[in-house]
Write a structure and sequence with these properties.
It is built from eight helices and nine strands. With 232 residues, it is an alpha+beta fold. It has one domain. Strands 2, 3, 4, 5, 6 and 7 form a six-stranded mixed β-sheet that branches. A hairpin with a 6-residue loop joins β5 and β6. The two termini are 30 Å apart. Bound molecules: zinc ion. Zinc ion (ZN) binds next to loops.
């Protein structure tokens, strides 16, 4: 079963608008917390998606072979959270000052759609869709890696003007946060020695994180609905 985002939000016919409600929720929670001493609310840190090497290799292969199919079906991916929030092991963009940010597949697709995160393949001249990059926000020098849709392989390159890469990527990423938001109760005891033995009320999850699916699952889904393999 898929989680289908409702399409009822005004002003956005693509079905993406629902993801924006999280930003509003966060603002509301922040205000709520400021007036309250019983608990505090925090967001869990994003963790690097640690995957075994054979899984990473399969992911690379799937992307090399099927990126065209994935891009052609971006509208389908925007509408299903478990596909939107697929986290590729290679999809990290970071600068020396900000550290790495994880780019869910849906965010990459939106940035590509906006004409960013692309470069020219040094092997065939085709379009490379960049999935990850790292470099200096100050000097602008960086390296990137991605997939060429024409020669169907993983490609890496170097460049200058890094803000063209991380700028649009970070901006889009900030619109689609996917972190668990947790409510943690404060201890009630006044004295420190009472606090040692007091049992804290269990945490409550206010907003859960959406667990992304895998590229393999997405590709087999797309092949089943698309009906045609990515060979044309
Ligand atoms: Zn190429």
């Amino acid at each position: 079963m898929y989680v289908i985002l409702t399409l009822s939000n005004a002003g956005d016919s693509s079905g993406r608008a629902d993801l924006f409600h999280i930003a509003g929720l966060k603002k509301q929670l922040k205000e709520e917390t400021m007036e309250n001493k019983d608990y505090y609310i925090f967001e869990e840190k994003e963790e690097y998606p640690r995957k075994p090497q054979d899984e990473i290799d399969r992911e690379n292969q799937q992307l090399s072979e099927n990126l065209h199919l994935i891009i052609n079906n971006s509208e389908r991916i925007y509408k299903q959270e478990k596909y939107f929030y697929i986290q590729l092991s290679s999809a990290v963009i970071g600068t020396t000052t900000t550290g790495g940010r994880f780019m869910p597949l849906g965010v990459l697709l939106l940035v590509w759609e906006g004409g960013h995160l692309k470069d020219i393949c040094p092997h065939c001249g085709g379009t490379v869709y960049i999935t990850g990059a790292a470099g200096s926000a100050l000097s602008g020098t960086h390296f990137w890696y991605g997939y060429c849709v024409k020669c169907k392989q993983r490609v890496t390159g170097r460049g200058s003007g890094f803000s063209r890469i991380w700028g649009p990527a970070f901006e889009m990423k900030s619109k689609y946060p996917n972190r668990r938001i947790i409510k943690r109760y404060n201890l009630k005891s006044e004295k420190w020695y009472d606090k040692l033995t007091e049992k804290r009320r269990p945490d409550e999850i206010i907003q859960d994180k959406i667990e992304g699916s895998t590229i393999e699952e997405l590709v087999s889904f797309l092949k089943s609905v698309d009906g045609i393999a990515d060979e044309k």
